[in-house]
Amino acid sequence: MLRLEKLVKTYKTGDQALQAVDIDIPEGQVLALIGPSGAGKSTLIRCINRLVEPTSGQVYLGDVELTGLSSSALRRERRRMGMIFQEYALVERLSVMENVLSGRLGYVGFWRSFMRKFPQSDVDEAYRLLDRVGLAHMADKRADELSGGQRQRVGICRALIQNPALLLVDEPTASLDPKTSRQIMRLICELCKERGLAAIINIHDVALAQMFVQRVIGLRLGAVEFDGPPEGLTPDVLTTIYGEEDWEATIEKVDDDEVEAQ
Amino acid sequence: MSSVAFDVQTKLGKPWKKPPFVQRDWLRWTLLLGFVAYLIAAYMTIDVNWSRVYEGLERGKKFVLAFTSPDFTSRSTDIWEGMFESIIMTVASSVVGIAISIPIALGAARNVAPLPVYLICRSIIAISRALQEIIVAILLVAIFGFGPLAGFLTLSFATIGFLAKLLAEDIESMDRVQAEAIKASGARWTQWINYGIQPQVMPRLIGLSIYRLDINFRESAILGLVGAGGIGATLNTAFDRYEYDTAAAILLIIIVIVMALEYLSGVVRARVQ
User: Fold this and answer.
1) Which position has the higher pLDDT, B51 or B123?
2) For FRET with B54, which of A59, A257, B42, B145 sits at 20 to 30 Å CA-CA?
3) Homologous superfamily of A2-256
């Protein structure tokens, strides 16, 4: 579904953010990308939809190679990749509805979007998605009136209304409390399952990642250090990814309070 | 814990002082003494003719006293005509200037425009800002003749430099991630501007526009002095004829209108937040 081949990103400053990363993600697989700050996690997912231009290497989304695309072809392919951001990245002064509908911008012309006259099917879908995440009654509120968890749900709706094949998720829970973090992770993973989406989730919280995903990739200094099931994250593995630390508490099973998290 | 050798014991029990901004003692004292010497030298070059000031005080007093008995009536047609012309000049030049500034501001924001466009737009802004209104007005009066057309063009030109520069700076300091999120959805460039950037800079654009309207009105009173039409021409005539009471009336009207605009901008800015 998504295949990265020898993906390299070297910043102008000379920092090697990614060194020849190879990853192959099958249809419908949810993958967590872990690693210390500065390991290149954000760069990696931004190189996929080319918000950051990779220096060399190839990215295949299905059969389409993304790194060589012209800007209009790239826009068409970006519609198939929904993105969810760390600080929600909602346009704060637009309403919730406008934010969700902005996920359809790749499908409608300029004047329709400028006049806010989106096709009825888009509006219906926006309401359905907002209802799915429990925010339909907030549709006409301004985005900056919402709480963190609510904003992230709107961000999820915006990504899903693109009708993507792949979700790129950048630290979805970094600015949320532990309980909301779990709810958001659960929501993302449920929605991926419902719609058969593949997803790459950048995440700091190793325990949270282990609870929800089928596969974990550990990144260190721009190179893949670990690729396997979440059970494979032993203290030794975490030490190679992050460095020396006492890992027993981190990987201890955390499902004891699973019930109250709902 | 700390890896750097640092003996805390030598610091304990001693007062702490903020390190000086200029580290080297001799340089710090040279700068300070130089500054004081400059102040003294500058003061000594001021050459005031006190007897001239004494005479002038008398004239100044007459001028100030005229404010107690402003004369709105004897030149009322001139005043209203001039005022009307000024207001038309102000509104027209603000609308045209703002309309032209917006695309230039987009071009002058480094995070939106490619380098060649950026350089061109920045040059336009620099030229507009470098040429002071009065100088532009003198030039345009020479080209188009006396009258409000020259004033209108001058103010439009000055508006571009002011508004485009400040708006471009606001665009450059916007939240990048919000705009990035719109781009990631596959939006076109125009949609990206409309959804990702415009909402972020709208309050600033509205605030600056009203402020510029205010400035343009005040400038229109000055431009008349060089023949570019508006209330300034009437004001100039009043001064030439030593009709301080009429001049006072005109100045009072200008003050009232500027205060009204100030109040209006407060109301509007509170609403668009």
Assistant:
1) B123
2) B42
3) P-loop containing nucleotide triphosphate hydrolases (3.40.50.300)
